[in-house]
Write a structure and sequence with these properties.
Elements lengths: L13 H4 L2 H17 L5 H16 L3 H26 L6 E5 L2 E4 H27 L2 H10 L4 H30 L8 H6 L1 H25 L18 H24 L1
Helix pairs in contact: 2-5, 2-10, 3-5, 4-5, 6-7, 7-9
Length: about 260
């Protein structure tokens, strides 16, 4: 990835050129549609008809697939197994293991929930891969969102890659000093102290340094803020955002009518 402090992958694509608010609205709309519509096939349709094609058109399909295989699938697979085996619904047993059994109804229930979670994480993974945090912060602040709230949002988006980058740097530094991190389990467990200590204390120091830096840049100033870069926002994207909002309202209405 081009930026160690975010998940963003720099590409020249239609998806990357979209306004950050448009992509954020799209991600929320896909999640709401996948969760609200009462049809089993809805999450699968959203995944393969919208999310996967967008990752291909955005030239980030490789990174998206890698994230799906390493992060999303294991968590969703565990959720599916737990709900299929421990959900006490249905009578037609399709799988039995000692005292655990999975029925047709529990498998269908687990599949629907797992598919929804997969779509939720995939939608926001697509958003993070195609949107730089600084662009999102600039656009939200320009639209009137308080700077403090924008900072909280951006810090949340950056916390995982920042911790990964810091952890990799600490591991490399400790290895250069002779710390054994690749041998037996006991030795690796003993190496956790020299690795976790600098990570925790370094993060605390970084919080203080960041607080001083944002205060020095007039973060709490009440004057109007200006940005070095202008984030493009066309009339088409405005119409697209309102269309997505209408789709969400329509999905909620359809769910209420169906129930």
């Amino acid at each position: 990835m081009s930026d160690r402090l975010s998940f963003h992958v720099q590409r020249d694509s239609f998806l990357h050129r979209l306004n950050p608010l448009t992509k954020l609205t799209l991600a929320f709309a896909l999640v709401v549609v996948a969760f609200v519509l009462p049809f089993y096939w809805t999450p699968i349709f959203v995944l393969f008809a919208v999310i996967v094609p967008l990752s291909v058109s955005g030239k980030i399909f490789r990174e998206f697939s890698w994230a799906a295989l390493r992060l999303i699938l294991p968590a969703v697979g565990f959720l599916f197994v737990m709900q299929a085996l421990f959900q006490p619904i249905g009578e037609q047993v399709v799988f039995k293991f000692y005292f655990l059994d999975a029925t047709t109804e529990s498998v269908a229930y687990a599949f629907r929930n797992a598919a929804r979670i997969f779509v939720m994480i995939s939608a926001f993974t697509l958003f993070l891969l195609s949107t730089h945090p600084s662009e999102l912060m600039s656009d939200l602040t320009r639209r009137g969102l308080p700077s403090q709230f924008s900072y909280v949002v951006i810090s949340t988006l950056q916390i995982i890659p920042q911790m990964q980058a810091k952890a990799n740097a600490i591991i490399a530094a400790q290895r250069s000093r002779g710390l054994d991190t690749e041998s037996s389990f006991l030795k690796r467990a003993g190496a956790l102290g020299p690795l976790v200590g600098p990570l925790v204390f370094g993060s605390l120091v970084e919080v203080e340094e960041r607080a001083i830096a944002i205060e020095a840049r007039g973060f709490t100033s009440k004057r109007a803020k200006t940005s070095l870069y202008e984030i493009a926002d066309s009339k088409f994207e405005s119409v697209l955002r309102w269309s997505l909002v209408a789709l969400v309202v329509l999905s909620i209405g359809l769910n209420l009518w169906h129930s």
